[in-house]
Amino acid sequence: MTQPRRVTAPSDPAAGRVAAALRAPRLCIERISPQVDHGRCPAKATVGQALAIEADIFMDGHDQVAAQVIWHEGAVAQALPMRALGNDRWRVEAVPQGAGRCRFTIEAWLDRWGSFRHGLARKAAAGVPIKLELEEGRALIREAAQQPGPAAGSLAALSRELATLDDSRTLDLFLGEATAALMRAGEPRRFVTRSQPELEVEVERTRAGFAAWYELFPRSCTRDPARHGTFDDVIARLPAIKAMGFDVLYFPPIHPIGASNRKGPNNSLKAGPGDPGSPYAIGSSEGGHTAVHPQLGGIEAFRRLHAAAGEAGIEIALDFAVQFSPDHPWLRDAPHWFAYRPDGSIRFAENPPKKYQDIVNCEFYADSRPDALWQALRDVILHWVDAGVKIFRVDNPHTKPLPFWQWLIEDVRGRHPDVMFLAEAFTRPAMMYRLAKIGFSQSYTYFTWRNTRAEFIEYLTELTQGPPKDFYRPHFFVNTPDINPYFLQTSGRAGFVQRAALAATLSGLWGLYSGFELCEAAPLPGKEEYLDSEKYQIRVRDWNAPGNIVGEITRLNHIRRENPALQSHLGLTFLQCDNDQVLYFAKHVPDRSNYLLVAISLDPHQAQEAYFDVPLAELGLPDDGALEVEELMRGERFTWRGKRQHWRFVPWELPLAIWRVKPA
Amino acid sequence: MTQPRRVTAPSDPAAGRVAAALRAPRLCIERISPQVDHGRCPAKATVGQALAIEADIFMDGHDQVAAQVIWHEGAVAQALPMRALGNDRWRVEAVPQGAGRCRFTIEAWLDRWGSFRHGLARKAAAGVPIKLELEEGRALIREAAQQPGPAAGSLAALSRELATLDDSRTLDLFLGEATAALMRAGEPRRFVTRSQPELEVEVERTRAGFAAWYELFPRSCTRDPARHGTFDDVIARLPAIKAMGFDVLYFPPIHPIGASNRKGPNNSLKAGPGDPGSPYAIGSSEGGHTAVHPQLGGIEAFRRLHAAAGEAGIEIALDFAVQFSPDHPWLRDAPHWFAYRPDGSIRFAENPPKKYQDIVNCEFYADSRPDALWQALRDVILHWVDAGVKIFRVDNPHTKPLPFWQWLIEDVRGRHPDVMFLAEAFTRPAMMYRLAKIGFSQSYTYFTWRNTRAEFIEYLTELTQGPPKDFYRPHFFVNTPDINPYFLQTSGRAGFVQRAALAATLSGLWGLYSGFELCEAAPLPGKEEYLDSEKYQIRVRDWNAPGNIVGEITRLNHIRRENPALQSHLGLTFLQCDNDQVLYFAKHVPDRSNYLLVAISLDPHQAQEAYFDVPLAELGLPDDGALEVEELMRGERFTWRGKRQHWRFVPWELPLAIWRVKPA
Fold first, then answer.
1. Which of A35, A222, A313, B419 minimizes the number of CB atoms within 10 Å of its CB?
2. What is the DSSP string of B455-499?
3. Under a CB-based contact definition with an 8 Å cutoff, are residues A532 and A268 in contact?
4. CA B555 → CA A140, B206, B599, distances in Å?
């Protein structure tokens, strides 16, 4: 033998390395989706909704490969065969059945029979001799028949039958789907490669991804600013909230409010004798985070409200704000959980040079028993879960340690998989995304500060196509007690309709803080805050004030319920139109059975017109095809013929359109 | 104490989980760059070139953090302090000193003194009382002074000095950089967090990223097609190749060519008696992959050429094609490395229904001793390394198993870190990228099929800003013996200049196959192949034929050597200009000390004009600023004033411009 000059001696350590390389996975499984930080955090999914699992799967050469997902939910494991999308991309959908943690792995292997069948078909079509190929096919089937398993009997029978067939009948059999199915089941799989690590998916109930939130201060449910509203007054508001189509009712903290350093109206440093104080200054001699503010009617009134809301199909969400009035009982009972200055005084919250003298933070890494503090905070949540609350909006989670939240959420959801947490973090993107990765079900966003078409396209593209798509559920609030957007301060009524429509159509989760439907926008001069903020005083409102947009909000929420395409931020495609003042996009479910086109004018002052292209090709139509169209805001039906269409958006009428389309 | 209702009992397993959470990393280190598949494959770097290491680093709250990279090269570890770029992004540059594998980890921690100093400065500026803050600062320094370490003595002295200072002097000292430096060195670091896994960087010599390749068939170095060229004839060509500025000379396989089923001119199935055959049909009775084709002059002629090229500063690259003529000695000596049909005949290479009857593939997973086959192939490489060859262009690596290449490259580079491999894979993107991830130094690309401005922008953006930037070094060949681009078949001379300029300026690696400089483009009718391809016959050329572009190529290679901005595909920014037929971009080194603007017309037929914006802001200039400009192709110098400039690109003169700019 013509030996290459230098064959490796058996003692060469390289000999071990080549043996290991021969055992290494021959196939590649890459760019698996969903995945978060290479499997360090779970991806998110919701019960009953198909979760697309994709990967690049390939091997050397021209042979065919096959792949499946092994999907674990609870104790049940399923094998889900993947299909090739082209360009080495493979996909299958899994449908989680319940809330909790699922896991999956991808397996891929050399598809010998598929490769053989593919080559055979080409050769037969080209009319080249295939006698040897048929012999090879018989050998493959004989080999498969010897493999123990449920298909072995059928394969053995097939092998016997083949011995009786001529080449032409054999060819038919080899090219047929029945043989392919048998071989898929029974052929020994070569070069089986498994993805690593096993990936996790946190499954949550539907409302984690699709809900309309309404926020109010219960104490303002009154017709007289001198009379503090109660939970029983909130019960009286429920029919109106339900009629508008909201299904989550969220309150700022409902606990006793501290008296020390209590804030007065408009964040003034001194409260008057009748001032109710900020509900974020939690805790007084009447109790802390597990108590109910007596003026709201105490825990019994809360229970009445909770029951009434439940009957109306409205879920209550509470605020979890880890901060303490100086009067909070924990300062007296567990002083080691707080920090002190060199003079022995307690350290107030601050953001230098600002100090917040009605609030004290706890020390999450206190020298003494921080574990007891963490558990006590977790027990606050469990207390309210016992009272029937399953949604917690967490105030400023980014100023508390990430390991704390990860532990707390895992602990609580381990006991109650239907509990959800919304992260109210307005800070830099990395932190906002991280909070979602470690377990928050939903997240506040930068929506309130996105105004131009380019801004919406950039931000929503990041959320729906970038890494966040796998773990970040954006909750689009049009306003909050802390955010009176500059845009709305001057937009007038049309601007409120536009912002509601943007939030309600771009995201499965949207919400408003009461007063929005009345187009309230009086600011603290020059600031993005409300004048006479409800955070510091009781506000009485006329819920039927003229110029309100209750009708439009009701319609939007109704359209959302009727159209699955609007029940997630995903399934979004921005489309071209010739007017920069009009945001135009498609929302659809994966199989396109529900397909909406949405156009919203961003100009609250002038009428805008736009020519725009209808994505006929996406719907399987030629450029001169016809679409049946239903404009859902107005309830009109008509037909669009051809690709190019036109619309006029009139702020003083209705500055948007939502077209549900299907091929005529 | 107001106990929350349900404090966890000590036996609760949750107690262990909270203890673990308290020990979990408090800081986050995310989106580390460079990294490849979360550290499963090494990133790439070159000797002496700064490698930017970046990450998102952050923690909860408003405190400051600090970070460093621990960089391991050989046995030496260095701590490189990172700097904040804003928005939680941090960076530092490492400069590898030699070829081989480096490793790095990122460490980050709470910067207590930095946080204290920052808050103190703000409070002092706001004029609020800071007496307690100063006391807190003294305590921090006392604590640091007790920490053993090189700074302990200085800190103890500082602590003693502080006892003698009034508040005003103390404030100055606390805000000063000297104290900050001392504290950086000596303060105990809290919440130190380390990135995981440790990441690897494969460092290669300069030519891995910056080289100009010239490909030729040695047998065509002759003036008479009846006389087979030899390596000694190639020696005679070296001065011309060097003069054009090429520094790598690459040959298709140089081994004995099989006689069985030898291909004739234009890939005809039957060779005539004088036909030389395809050099890719490797192996004959005269030897296999380690032998030299006798008609080229044998190994002695190769050694003479290698020495002469070395003296000219030109490196020889060989082709590694793992395929076998039916006459290759291994078929006789190691028949178990090959596959057979049911009738006992050898299995030829095929891509159904096509068969390649002059080529046989080996079985990488043969039933018997595949390890010996892998080692024998590796030993082919080592044989040529011994002969002085350090660059291997690998033919069709995507049709051989990936674990084989990963093992082979690691084995060879473990012995000889200066050996490089170029992957000639024209297949789907996932496979092309994978080959680079598992060790190929350089890769063929889709460059040849990118023609419009939009196509260049999309492809180069993917290569320079997507994941490939960390592991994929694109080698832009303007043509190959297999690719006679459609564009060049009709473009005429200007098209050759345009394609050379595109390759030479967009990538650090470019190359051409001989004949390109003579604007050869006669195709097999309707195909992207050359008529009378050199793969099957000897081609005699007149190297001084009129209309050649030797001058332009020489100029381009000269400009590349003089301008570091052109020595990598990275550092690329596409810029706006008002003519779609003009590709306009900036190339620069990280510190912008070498900054080029390049504009290339894509139209080989018509003159094109363009108004374009000069990125004055990038160069620190206002919109009416002035730039000193050197047009490098023509050697002209002038001044540009203002942002808007104009140029005319004339195909029959010079359809491009390369402007080296600096602030006037």
1. A313
2. HHHHHHHHHHHSGGGGT--BEEES-BTTB--HHHHHH-HHHHHHH
3. no
4. 60, 21, 16
Query: In terms of residues, how long is chain A?
Result: 664
**B40 class by beta-carbon count within 10 Å (0-12 exposed, 13-18 middle, 19+ buried):** middle
Q: Which residues between 17 and 56 in chain B have a beta carbon less than 8 angstroms from any beta carbon of chain A?
A: 17-19, 21-22, 24-26, 28, 30-31, 37-38, 56
Residue A530 sits at the vertex; the CA angle it makes with A529 and A534, to the nearest 5 degrees, is: 120
pLDDT value for B645: 96
Considering only the C-alpha atoms of chain B, give the largest distance between any 2 of them, rounded to a whole number of Å: 105
Give the model confidence (pLDDT) of A448-506 as tens digits.
999 999 999 999 999 999 999 999 999 999 999 999 999 999 999 999 999 999 999 99
Q: Edge-to-edge strand order for the sheet containing A656-663?
A: A572-574, A582-588, A595-601, A656-663, A626-631, A636-641
Helix and strand totals (H; E) in chain B: 16, 28
Instruction: Give chain B's radius of gyration (CA, Å).
Output: 31
* Among chain B residues, CA nearest to A137: B342
Whether residue A431 lies within 8 A of chain B, CB to CB, comes out as yes
- Determine the pLDDT at residue A355: 81
**What DSSP string describes B202-259?**
EEE-GGGTSEEEEE--GGG-SSSTTS---HHHHHHHHHHHHHHT--EEE-S--S-B--
Calculate helix-pair angle for B550-562, B231-244, nearest 10 degrees. 70
8 Å CB contact of A342 and B38: no
pLDDT at residue A136 greater than cutoff 80: yes
pLDDT tens by residue, A297-354: 999 999 999 999 999 999 999 999 999 999 999 999 999 999 999 999 999 988 888 8
CA-atom Rg of chain A in angstroms: 31
Show the tokens assigned to A170. Answer: 């054999």
pLDDT, tens only, B261-273? 999 999 998 899 9
- The rounded percent of chain A whose pLDDT value lies above 90 is 95
Distance CA B208, CA B204 (A): 6
Chain A residue with minimal CA distance to B399? A61
User: What ipTM was reported for this prediction?
Assistant: 0.94
Taking CA atoms, A125 is separated from A119, A128, B229, in Å, by 10, 8, 44
A608-613 and A644-649 strand pairing: antiparallel
Query: Which whole-number Å values give the CA distances from B246 to B205, B210, B234, B502, B514, in the listed order?
Result: 17, 11, 14, 16, 12
Contact A375 B18 (CB under 8 A): yes
Q: A26 vs B400: CB contact, 8 Å cut-off?
A: no
Task: Give me the DSSP letters along B512-568.
Answer: EETTGGGT--PBSTTSSSBTT-TTTS-----TT-TT--HHHHHHHHHHHHH-GGGSS
Residue A163 CB-density burial (10 A; 0-12 exposed, 13-18 middle, 19+ buried) = exposed
In this structure, chain B runs to a length of 664
* DSSP tag of A328: -
The answer to whether the CB of B425 falls within 8 A of the CB of B398 is yes
Asked if B441 and B450 touch (Cβ cutoff 8 Å), the reply is: no
Residue-level pLDDT at B3: 44
pTM of the model: 0.94
* Residue in B267, B295, B270 with CA at minimum distance from that of residue B280: B267
